[in-house]
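Exam revision sheet. Question 4 asks you to relate a sequence to its structure. Input first:
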Amino acid sequence: GSDPGFPEAGVYLINSPGELEVLGSELLTSVAVDFANQSMIVLALGEQPTTGWAAHINGAQHVGGQLYVQGTAQGPGEGEAVGQALTYPVAAVIVPKLNAEMIHPEIADAM
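Answer key, structure tokens:
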């Protein structure tokens, strides 16, 4: 999806509805999450100048206080028709509750 609450690229670990509100998320506030028992991992590609972008979370591992998130950032294909509009591609997954001291994004470019 696209969510202007994530204008900067990054991987986010969300552990409360308040954290989503502070970010200004429009899309993800409608996702049903039991924050007492679950966390949300978000991969955001930041502001993109056209349509045709997609973010995918392929996996995540929590090791000690470290969170490793694997994902893919996909842009429009060569010669693909795109619309000229600002987009904010995001992907999110719900996982059992976790806390992490450090997040390590491992994001591959699918182009």
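Marking note for examiners. Strands lie at 9-14, 38-45, 54-63, 66-74, 90-96, 102-109.
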